[in-house]
Design brief:
The chain is about 40% helix and about 20% strand. It is of the alpha/beta class. Helix 6 packs parallel to helix 7.
Length: about 290
């Protein structure tokens, strides 16, 4: 461990994905960055996750939650157990390149205006496609108006200013919420394409229809609670026809229709109730969402 380098906490959130999480942890342990801690946040798993992880990695900290709080609030609850100056969020169905954490730190270390560093996802079908020491396809780095929650590193101090993920979100849209807050506070999000995560969409512990519906309504919440009032109202009217089209493309049109009346109005009411600190119009334009 190099005490001259800041501690980076690698947080892995798990729910009922024992074997995949073990694979993810192995990739975290193989990082070349020397000063890390690994924090496993278990979202009330009912499979053998705790037994397998604790027996395979007895030295790793496991935070056992009493139930499944979803992805955003599960991560929130892990933050207080992360001692690092930075928190690197790692999807438990992903595998990190061995240089990922080092490259994230190299990207952020000399610029206090960078709040979040995100990376590049390489899809895979079979484990033999993963090469944790491969040369990246690209070394491009640039400002980016969003980040991927399962491969990103946050400066922990930003939460004191902008808060954390919306705890009532179960899945989806939480990255856009924080992005709006980050950019509104004149911080930067940098995408570094040499920070690599191999990811295979898992069929374990997933309900794709529920995930899509959560994404739709969480986006509605973010837009109404955070956008400048003119654009919030426009999005409120834009949402039903546009997202009905998206639902049709995803094959969930009937299910979306069944939720639309009740869930739409509940989301709108809560979003307006929570509307306390909307982003500036200049931020809205900077996010390139004016269209």
């Amino acid at each position: 461990m190099d005490q001259n380098l800041p501690l980076i906490s690698i947080q892995v959130l798990n729910w009922n994905r024992a074997e995949e999480t073990v694979r993810s942890i192995h990739s975290a342990l193989e990082q070349t960055y020397p000063n890390i801690e690994i924090v496993i946040v278990d979202n009330g798993s009912t499979d053998h996750s705790i037994a397998l992880i604790s027996s395979t990695f007895p030295e790793i900290k496991i935070i056992q939650l009493d139930k499944n709080y979803g992805c955003p609030d599960g991560r929130n609850r892990g933050i207080d157990h992360c001692n690092g100056e930075f928190i690197f969020y790692l999807d438990n169905d992903g595998v990190l390149h061995r240089e990922a954490v080092k490259r994230a730190h190299d990207t952020i270390k000399d610029d206090k205006d960078i709040a979040i560093v995100t990376g590049q996802v390489y899809d895979f079908d079979y484990p033999n496609e993963i090469d944790p020491s491969i040369q990246p396809r690209s070394n491009k780095k640039y400002e980016f108006a969003n980040f991927q929650g399962g491969i990103c590193m946050h400066r922990k101090s930003i939460y004191e200013k902008i808060g954390r993920y919306p705890k009532h979100f179960f899945y989806g849209g939480e990255e856009w919420y924080l992005t709006c807050k980050v950019i509104d506070n004149n911080w930067k999000i940098i995408k570094n394409e040499s920070i690599i995560l191999w990811h295979k969409r898992s069929l374990v512990a997933r309900d794709r229809t529920a995930e899509l519906l959560n994404q739709y309504y969480n986006k509605l919440y973010v837009c109404i609670s955070l956008y400048p009032i003119k654009y919030a109202i426009l999005f409120m009217f834009y949402f039903p026809p546009k997202y009905l089209m998206y639902a049709k493309e995803e094959g969930i049109q009937k299910k979306f229709r069944r939720t639309l009346f009740n869930r739409y109005f509940k989301t709108v009411v809560k979003a307006f109730k929570d509307r306390k600190d909307p982003i500036k119009t200049s931020t809205y334009n900077k996010l390139n969402i004016g269209h």
